[in-house]
Each structure stands twice: as C-alpha cells, then as structure tokens.
Design brief:
alpha/beta, Double Stranded RNA Binding Domain, Arc Repressor Mutant, subunit A, 2 domains, 6 helices
C-alpha cells in the first residue's frame, strides 16, 4: 500500500508519500495546496491520503518540519525507498545526503565523490529529478565557484537561498543575493 500526507511547515504545506520500503517522495510547497498534492501524486498516483501516518513517517514529518523551522535536525535517518530511481541517481542522492545543514558542495565535488570526474552535468540532471526534496538536500549543491544555480522547486534560486539561510548558510559575499527572498 502506498499513502501520502500533506503537512504544514514554516515555508508552507509540504507533502510526503511512502510505501512498505520507506519514503517514495517529498514535495516542497507549490503555489496552492492542491498543486502540492498533484505534484506529489505524480510519484505515486495510486496512493491514499492518510491523516495519521505510521510512526516512522510521523517522525520524518516532524524532523522535516523542525529543519524548516531552523532547528538542527538529521534527515539522514529517514528511510528512503530508492527502488524507483536509477543506480546513478541513488549514488548522487546518497552523497548529497552527507552534506551537513548550512554547508554546500558543488556539482563537480559530488561527481568526483562518486567517481565520475567529468559528471557534474549528470549530477545536476539527477538532482533536478530528486523525488526526495529536502531529505536529499539538493538545495545544498551549488555550481562552480559556489554560485547558486539550478533549483527546480517552485521559486527556483530564491527558494534554494531561503532553504540554505534557514539552515544557517552564509554567502561568502554579503549582499550578493539581496532581493532574491
């Protein structure tokens, strides 16, 4: 059985979908609650909405919500079901999950870490298809020279910057991103 729940956070209503092997997807807020639900259901169209998720999912929801309130939370303990993603993408996602809150790594550094020296573009493509937003912290992955580029969630780079700032990240050049959030 696959199920999902929508839940409120400091940045808006998010969604989480799960199955017997763990979390299938996490959705950041869209413009409307219905848009969030619709985008989440693309990952698991037959899922049923559940108001009282099982304990591991309820814990995942609280952990995600806490992180989005600025609390120090470890999302690595959330069990992900990566059976629907390619082996390459799973390696990228596992590596991205190791980036601590408030820190960033470049696409090239991720590629190097998984043994794909020239794979920065492929890493970017994998992260653009990340079904586990925030749990696989693709917002912590940046372009060469640590530029904020490439974020497919609603709000794009402004959302990426907001998530990084919630986690305590500070731009190396103050004022560089003023006006984005």
């Amino acid at each position: 059985m696959h199920a999902y729940a929508l839940f409120d956070t400091a940045i808006g209503r998010c969604g989480i979908a799960w199955g017997p092997r763990g979390v299938i997807g996490v959705q950041l807020p869209e413009a409307t609650f219905e848009a969030t639900r619709t985008r989440l259901l693309r990952l698991c169209p037959s899922a049923d909405e559940i108001e009282q998720p099982p304990k591991p999912i309820a814990h995942a929801i609280e952990t995600i919500s806490g992180l989005l309130r600025g609390e120090k939370k470890n999302l690595r303990l959330i069990q992900l079901d990566m059976s629907r993603v390619s082996t390459f993408n799973a390696r990228v996602y596992d590596t991205a999950r190791a980036i601590p809150a408030g820190k960033t790594r470049t696409y090239g550094e991720i590629a190097h870490a998984i043994g794909e020296r020239d794979g920065a573009r492929a890493v970017g493509q994998a992260l653009s298809r990340n079904p586990f937003a925030i749990v696989v912290p693709c917002h912590r992955v940046v372009g060469a020279n640590f530029r904020l580029v490439g974020f497919s969630a609603t709000g794009g780079i402004a959302t990426k910057l907001k998530l990084l700032q919630i986690e305590g990240w500070r731009a190396k050049e103050p004022g560089l991103f003023d006006g984005l959030i």
